[in-house]
Write a structure and sequence with these properties.
The structure holds 2 protein chains of 2 kinds. By secondary structure, chain A is of the alpha/beta class. Chain A has 12 helices and 12 strands. Chain B contains 11 helices and 2 strands, in the order H-H-H-H-E-E-H-H-H-H-H-H-H. Classes of the chains: A alpha/beta, B mainly alpha. Chains A and B meet through helix 2, strand 7, helix 7, helix 8 and helix 9 of A and helix 1, helix 4, strand 2, helix 9 and helix 10 of B.
């Protein structure tokens, strides 16, 4: 009898050791799961890149507090991608040297194409959380996915806001509105602008009175554009910008008394970046930026699961940064949380199983951080109509949520914009 | 927009006045940056790819002195000139002295390396956020007729003129200026005549850096400071230097006005996306047909080569 007990105990011990050893062979990181994070941490986009990385880190900590991903602690291997060449080479390094099976990032439309191509060559999953380049989803890469809306969605939302919110408050029908388009000329600016132009003209018959593209890295003076646009006298200026150009344009428009009734932008850069408010102080009041939710957002408008998540995320950002989540935090955070959801369901990073799991997800608007829903198409793009976006306006030194009205406690002001000195 | 709207005579005059003012003010900013570069490029024959980063450092100097101690950039420029002169001397001793007689490839790689190092040093020290200072004069708009411009721009313009003419006078009418010009014409002969060429290069480089540092302070109320702020201007400065003639101060000033004019008028009539096409075509044309620059002496480009 005693021998039998010893024998059974010894067998169980051996079995346990075998199970443990086989487990550690399958996961050499011993309890950790590593993904690559690519962001521009140096170069002209570094400010936003760092904000995105901060958003990833905050959600990573939230994930680890809840048991990690696939039962393992989530860790990052970080790569710096200041330009497309670096994005591709850093993606290669993360894959070949760090051994990651998933890369996320890159924030910028100038970088996501190169990074995702490099990942696809190694059959590694590329999980984009922010770039909006419409071409991203048109390459039939089976391993590339995007959680964020694409530029056509940005353009759609902006025109929706202009036609259904601005026009009535200006006492004009949408087809009476004169609209001028100004944009930086990367795939981000062009993608948003061209889709907005198309919808504005074809669906609402708005009168396009101006169109100007420029290089955001080299623009030093907007005077010629402003002089020309003043002659066109638009009601609405649709301006898609990065940070430096938005700051410069707004200052010069003020100096030259360029009066338009509203300015509408899309994205976490330019008018959507905290840098714009810091640069102009109270003079920043007025412009709109399509973004993730800001102050004024009615969190109770979300579904219960989304409400809980959103609340927890805001508190985590507040604790870490001392301020309300900014666009960059929210895009990265919302995207990474969705990745956790997929990995937990798929229980593997095998690209085929991962892809099937992504495509099988079906969550309504309001289920996720930022109020997002989930429904990916065959090309790896989360449905624009599930990625709920909000119009924020600069009011008294901060961006606040003003539209859609069911999501906010605040109201859009200064429609039409009064003279430059009267926007306080 | 396809083409500017149809205008009456009064409106045409208004538009021309605004574009003219924009050209002069923008040109003066380019000149401010290019004057230091033309000095280094023209006298030392060194392609200093880190020139824009010294501009960026000047912008940060103005930003921090204003933010921490409320020192107006107009006052800070007086401090910046000697401070950047010292920075120039230090940079020459640590970096430039070793490469002054090296091949152009070595000079390019070294100064590009210096440029990247300075950008990343700024990123580590001050983050990538865009920093804008708002002294009282940045909000003052001056209007003459239909033309409107910023008071800070006007001061940058005046300072640019003063600096360029002062440097021109220094080079033309002082003994030190003659020594520098002699070294630029023939370094070997200058050495044989007893000129300490190393000292000439050191001082020349320091003056060039002092100029661009002062430029950084003066443009700080107009443009945001961030680690790669210099890149926005440095390519333009090269176009200006080649256009104006290597080492020619007044040429740099006129070259700046031409580049700004091409940019402003081209942007107005053809669109902002075209501006670089126009001035780089002009740049190539000058290199092909008049390599010494529009205002430089024929053969000047070969000196010291």
């Amino acid at each position: 009898m005693r021998h039998r007990v010893v024998g059974v105990t010894a067998s169980l011990l051996v079995l346990s050791v075998v199970v443990l050893l086989s487990g550690s062979q399958a996961q050499p990181l011993a309890g950790e799961y590593k993904i690559g994070v690519l962001e521009p941490l140096t170069g002209p986009l570094a400010g936003e890149g760092k904000r995105h990385l901060e958003g990833f880190e905050i959600v990573r900590d939230m994930i680890n507090e809840r048991g990690g991903v696939m039962g393992k602690r989530l860790v990052f291997a970080v790569g710096d991608a200041p330009d497309p060449t670096a994005a591709a080479s850093e993606a290669n390094r993360l894959i070949t040297r760090e051994g990651v099976k998933i890369i996320t990032g890159t924030f910028s439309s100038t970088l996501c194409g190169a990074a995702s191509e490099a990942a696809a060559r190694h059959n590694v999953i590329y999980w984009e959380t922010s770039c909006v380049d419409p071409r991203f989803s048109k390459r039939n890469l089976k391993t590339a996915f995007r959680t964020e809306i694409d530029a056509t969605g940005f353009g759609w939302y902006n025109v929706e806001f202009i036609a259904k919110h601005l026009a009535p408050r200006l006492n004009l029908r949408p087809n009476q509105l004169k609209i001028a388009f100004l944009s930086e000329d990367s795939s981000y600016g062009q993608g948003v602008t061209e889709s907005a132009r198309q919808r504005a003209k074809q669906e609402f018959g708005m009168q396009e009175v101006g169109l100007e593209y420029y290089n955001f890295r080299t623009i030093n003076d907007f005077t010629p554009v402003i002089v020309k646009f003043k002659q066109a006298n638009p009601d609405v200026l649709h301006h898609v910008a990065y940070n430096n150009d938005a700051i410069l344009f707004w200052r010069q428009a003020r100096e030259q008394s360029f009066l338009f009734k509203a300015l509408v932008h899309a994205g976490a850069t330019g008018y959507g970046s905290p840098d714009f408010g810091k640069a102009h102080g109270a003079d920043a009041n007025g412009p709109f930026a399509l973004l993730e939710p800001g102050p004024g957002f009615r969190i109770e408008s979300l579904r219960p699961e989304g409400r809980k998540l959103e609340q927890e995320y805001r508190e985590a950002v507040q604790k870490r940064t001392g301020s309300y989540p900014q666009g960059g935090h929210q895009l990265a955070g919302g995207g990474l949380w969705l990745l956790k959801l997929v990995l937990d369901r798929a229980r593997t990073d095998d690209p085929e199983t991962f892809r099937k799991t992504v495509l099988s997800l079906d969550l309504p608007v309001g289920s996720m951080i930022n109020g997002w829903g989930v429904k990916f198409s065959e090309v790896g793009q989360n449905a624009n109509e599930r990625v709920q976006h909000y119009m924020l306006q600069w009011q008294d030194g901060r961006l606040v949520t003003v539209w859609p009205e069911e999501f906010t406690t605040l109201r859009a002001k200064w429609i039409p914009l009064p003279a430059w000195g009267q926007r306080k | 927009m396809d083409s500017p709207a149809r205008l009456g005579p009064a409106e045409i005059i208004g538009v021309l006045a605004q574009l003219g003012v924009a050209t002069v003010l923008l040109g003066s900013i380019y000149a401010l940056i290019a004057v230091g570069l033309t000095l280094i490029f023209g006298i030392m024959r060194v392609v200093n790819f880190a020139h824009g980063e010294f501009l960026m450092l000047g912008m940060y100097l103005a930003f921090w002195s204003f933010t921490l101690w409320s020192i107006d950039p107009w006052f800070m420029v007086v401090v910046a000139i000697p401070l950047f002169f010292l920075i120039g001397l230090l940079t020459y001793a640590l970096v430039m002295r070793g490469i002054i007689h090296a091949s152009h490839n070595v000079q390019i790689f070294t100064t590009v390396g210096l440029s990247i190092a300075l950008q990343n040093l700024a990123l580590v020290l001050w983050t990538g956020d865009y920093q804008v200072l708002r002294p009282w004069h940045a909000a003052v708009v001056v209007r003459i007729g239909s033309a409107a411009f910023n008071l800070s721009q006007v001061v940058a313009f005046a300072a640019s003129m003063a600096l360029t003419l002062a440097l021109f006078a220094f080079m033309k009418w002082t003994a030190a200026g003659r020594v520098i010009r002699a070294t630029a014409q023939d370094g070997e002969a200058a050495t044989l005549m007893g000129i300490d060429t190393d000292r000439v290069y050191r001082v020349t480089f320091a003056i060039g850096i002092a100029c661009v540092g002062a430029a950084g302070v003066l443009v700080s109320p107009l443009y945001a400071a961030y680690p790669t702020a210099g890149l926005q201007f440095v390519l333009l400065a090269y176009v200006v230097v080649v256009l104006g003639g290597l080492g020619d101060m007044v040429g740099a000033l006129l070259g700046s006005l031409i580049v700004a004019g091409v940019e402003v008028v081209g942007s107005y009539f053809f669109g902002a996306a075209w501006k670089e096409v126009f001035y780089f075509v002009l740049f190539i044309a000058v290199l092909v047909f008049r390599p010494a620059g529009l205002f430089g002496q024929r053969g000047a480009e070969m000196l010291g080569a």
